[in-house]
Amino acid sequence: MKRAPESNHPDLGFQIAPMLDVVFVILLYFMVMSSSVKMEYEIKTTLPGSAETATAAADAEMPEEVTIGINEAGEVSINDEPIATPSDKRLDNLYAEMKKLGDAATQSGLKIIVTVEAESTVKYERIMNVLDILAKAKVSNVTFSASDEEE
Fold first, then answer.
1. What is the DSSP string of the chain?
2. Which of 24, 45, 84, 133 could join 88 in a cystine, given CB atoms 3.0 to 4.6 angstroms apart?
3. Domain-located, residue 67
4. How many domains does the chain have?
5. In this structure, is residue 131 part of a structural domain?
6. What's the pTM?
7. In a domain, 15, yes or no
8. How far apart are CA 34 and CA 18, in angstroms?
9. b/e map of 69-100 (b: 16 or more CB within 10 Å)?
10. Is the distance from CB of 104 to CB of 56 less than 8 angstroms?
11. Range of the domain at 104
């Protein structure tokens, strides 16, 4: 058997020069590519709804529950504050107040809960007037409470 001839070149080991060349090429690549990255800019957008309704909704305190009271004479009140007289059949003030509360609740993502408290001797026509106004104002969470005044 023949042996392979021994070479005159000794084992040179790990060569650092080619490794540095590769590192410098990679470094150069990343330096060039970093200048081509586009910066993200703030996109100016406006959300739906006018600024007036947004500030009105922010200013309006949303009650957890609204109580509409109807006394024997037919006077309507919201949270014990009179809003309509017995002779007021259209209930425009009640509609305006409930529409405002309903819009604020819609914008804030909350549900408005309305409790209609009527005395037991109130005419059904007056209760139906109030319910019609609530339906017109698109208020759907309505509960009833009948109060029987015993003296």
1. -PPPPPPSSPP----HHHHHHHHHHHHHHHHHHHTTPPPP-------SS-HHHHHHHHHS---SEEEEEE-TT--EEETTEEEE-TT-SS-HHHHHHHHHHHHHHHHHTPPPEEEEEEETTS-HHHHHHHHHHHHHTT---EEEEEE----
2. 84
3. yes
4. 1
5. yes
6. 0.56
7. no
8. 25
9. bbbeebbbbbeeeebbeeeeeebebbbebbee
10. yes
11. 53-147
Give just the sign of the alpha carbon dihedral 107, 110, 111, 112.
Answer: negative
pLDDT over 70, % of the chain: 74
Amino acid occupying residue 75: E
Cα distance between residue 4 and residue 7, in whole Å? 9
How do residues 126-142 score in pLDDT, each as one tens digit? 999 999 999 998 888 89
For tokens 């309509």, what's the residue? 84
Q: 120: Cβ–Cβ under 8 A, 6 or more apart, which residues?
A: 146, 147, 148, 149
CB 100 within 8 A of CB 133: no
pLDDT tens, position by position, 95-120: 999 999 888 888 887 888 899 999 98
